[in-house]
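Lecture notes, part 5. Sequence design as translation. It can be helpful to think of inverse folding as translation between two languages: the language of shapes and the language of residues. The source text, in structure tokens, appears below.
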């Protein structure tokens, strides 16, 4: 990890927008599924919430699951967390393994090759819908560097109550942004203006018994 990243972590600037949303989006009994768990920073913030039962995190970077596991252990959160390496897909015809491009900055690694790519690795592909059926999450958290459009186009959100996703308009474009919102709208989710901030968007199911329209609730 670079000195710059260590400095950002120490100053609380790393993933600041997501970190500030964490206490606002959890509720008692939450089971969290996280796609793009990286070093486990947001994962551990979620697991620290008393009302969260567990956090299962997946990241395609094969170097990060072990690191996130150590971060969770150092914070006494091993019993509530689990981290695995995988590319996440909703394509029923996806291959068993896929290419993932490691960037010199871990947070910029992606399925899309770029000028900063230093190595391409083959990692296992996991079916997002199967993982949702298996873990039955109430809260889904997603930060996959522009892969959100492909993911949510064919996702089954049965049983999911809330979704926090970082959108990457620079990657998916304006049409892609509209398509993501359309995906959630067609599944009965609305944009929660009280808990969203810029690129970090929170969607809540309209039939939720959680009063997401109450800005002062937490």
């Amino acid at each position: 990890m670079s000195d710059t990243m260590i400095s950002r972590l120490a100053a609380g600037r790393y993933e600041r927008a997501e970190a500030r949303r964490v206490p606002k989006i959890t509720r008692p009994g939450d089971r969290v599924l996280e796609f793009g768990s990286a070093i486990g920073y947001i994962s551990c913030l979620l697991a620290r919430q008393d009302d969260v039962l567990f956090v299962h995190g997946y990241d395609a970077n094969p170097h990060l699951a072990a690191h996130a596991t150590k971060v969770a252990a150092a914070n006494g959160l091993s019993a509530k967390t689990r981290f695995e390496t995988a590319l996440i897909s909703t394509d029923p015809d996806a291959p068993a393994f896929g290419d993932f491009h490691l960037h010199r900055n871990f947070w910029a690694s992606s399925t899309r090759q770029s000028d900063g790519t230093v190595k391409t690795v083959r990692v296992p592909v996991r079916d997002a819908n199967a993982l949702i059926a298996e873990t039955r999450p109430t809260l889904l958290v997603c930060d996959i560097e522009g892969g959100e459009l492909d993911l949510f186009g064919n996702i089954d959100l049965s049983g999911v109550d809330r979704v926090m996703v970082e959108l990457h308009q620079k990657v998916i474009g304006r049409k892609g942004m509209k398509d993501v919102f359309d995906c959630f709208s067609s599944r009965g989710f609305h944009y929660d203006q009280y808990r969203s901030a810029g690129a970090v968007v929170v969607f809540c199911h309209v039939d939720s018994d959680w009063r997401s329209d109450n800005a002062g609730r937490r």
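The translated text above is only one of many valid answers, since several sequences can fold into similar shapes. The mean pLDDT is 88.
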